[in-house]
Specification:
Layout: H1 8-45, E1 52-55, E2 66-69, E3 79-82, H2 84-92, E4 96-97, H3 103-107
């Protein structure tokens, strides 16, 4: 059973439509491949998370609020990565350790 039109004009119309559709599909595939490649490059270029994080107060003059481990889920948006000595110094100066990630335990900091 042949489901194609029997005459040349309709076959040419069908051919034009199929070519147009195939071009659209190929363009969409190329766009998606480009997006995936860009995403992969971005993930590879992403810097490693900091080992320790200071969560800052509401304004620039406020003291730090918490010390977090670098991968803590509870670190606020007003945070900055710090090194081990800065995190230890902040704990010694009275900045609270996050109760969720317990950076004081990881740092080996004993109060007092």
């Amino acid at each position: 059973m042949n489901d194609l039109p029997p005459d040349l004009p309709r076959l040419r119309t069908l051919e034009t439509w199929l070519t147009y559709t195939l071009d659209r599909v190929r363009k969409q595939i190329a766009d998606l491949e480009r997006q995936e490649a860009e995403q992969e490059r971005g993930e590879q270029a992403r810097p490693a998370p900091p080992d320790w994080v200071l969560e800052l107060g509401l304004n620039r003059d406020s003291p730090a609020v918490y010390v977090h481990a670098g991968d803590c889920w509870n670190a606020g948006k007003r945070s900055k990565g710090v090194d081990r000595s800065t995190a230890l110094r902040a704990l010694a100066e009275g900045v609270a350790a996050c109760p969720h990630c317990r950076p004081d335990s990881e740092l080996g900091y004993l109060e007092g």
